[in-house]
Amino acid sequence: MNRILRFINILYGQLIRLFSRDFQAEFGEELQGVFSTMMGAAARRGKLALSMACLQELRDFPILLIRTNLEKNQMTQYRRGLALVNLVLILPACLFMFALLVRLWLPLQTGMGIPAQQMIMWYSGRLWTLWLLLVTLPLIALISGWVGLVRSWTGDIELRQAARHPLVAIRTHGPVVFVALETLIAGMILAIVAVHVLMN
Description:
- It is a single chain.
- This protein is mostly helical.
- Helix content is 90%, strand content 0%.
- It has two domains: 2-69; 73-199.
């Protein structure tokens, strides 16, 4: 019976490898420990009880595997969606800031200077654009980006490990890196607007 138990535990340990690395790191030992305890208790009741416990695990394990993979896919979709939404939120303010830089660097008579000046005049001629496009939308991007980053950081062991190697993080966690950049840009936009408002 001990050989059978050892074989079942080794087999279950191999099945745990089907989960993602972060899930294994967080729950692998716990799953193995609970399984070993349950199988040991079933083995003490006899071969029939052990067989029934194995069949129950064969039924439950695929469900657990599918559920955890779906949750991981949902998290990936959430991160991509957040990156896209934040990009849309900061894009108008980024265009305005780019137009300001072009106007500073290039004379008004040049090809790029004229459209930049027109864009600046359009923004400054409408009060709602300043508050909506330069304050409200970047503030929403900053808050949603910060919440998304904290949620990703606390819930993803792989992300915390990849953060030690930035190039790996960019390759394996691109949407999170993109959200981090957008959050930083949103904060910089708000800081520039705040300084401008305080100076005037």
